[in-house]
Amino acid sequence: MQNVLIVIHLIIVIALVGVVLLQRSEGGGLGMGSGGGGGVGGFMTGRGQANALTRATAILAGLFFITSITLAVLATHGRTQRSIIDGAPPPGATAPAAPSAPSAPNAGGVLDQLRQMQSPPGGSQPPTPAAPAQ
Asked: d(Cα 47, Cα 36) in Å, to the nearest integer?
């Protein structure tokens, strides 16, 4: 349902952009017809064109808002309200144990922690380079 509504929403957006670009601006813009009021061979008179494009813009804008609100409602439909406080440990809980002190000056860094996380439990780890003697 949501995917179908997104496709309809995109079609409305493209049509709305097209209708807005067809409208005549103060400087002429991309408006249809030539001159002030259009000639005998013109598609519509200047006034009829303005009314039709204005009405189409209003209808497409209304549809745009309706689909936007519907998509927002569908996106939040299955969610539950959560708080940051819900994830906090209870006041009497103990803090996690601190990691043991590294044996070498550079041991225990981010790369060593990543290696420990990736190695299988109980398996052998690749040797870490020894710290230079000072």
From this structure: 10
pLDDT tens for each residue of 13-24: 999 999 999 887
* CB-count burial class (<10 Å; 0-12, 13-18, 19+) for 49: buried
Torsion of CA 36, 50, 10, 80, to 10 degrees: 140
Q: Which amino acid is at 13?
A: V
pTM: 0.48
Total Cβ atoms within 10 A of residue 19:
19
Query: How far is Cα 49 from Cα 62, in angstroms, rounded to an integer?
Result: 20
Structural tokens at position 106: 């550079």
Report the distance separating Cα 32 and Cα 25, nearest Å.
Answer: 11
Angstrom distance (rounded) from CA 29 to CA 15: 18
* pLDDT tens-digit map of 46-91: 666 678 888 999 999 999 999 999 999 998 887 887 777 777 777 7
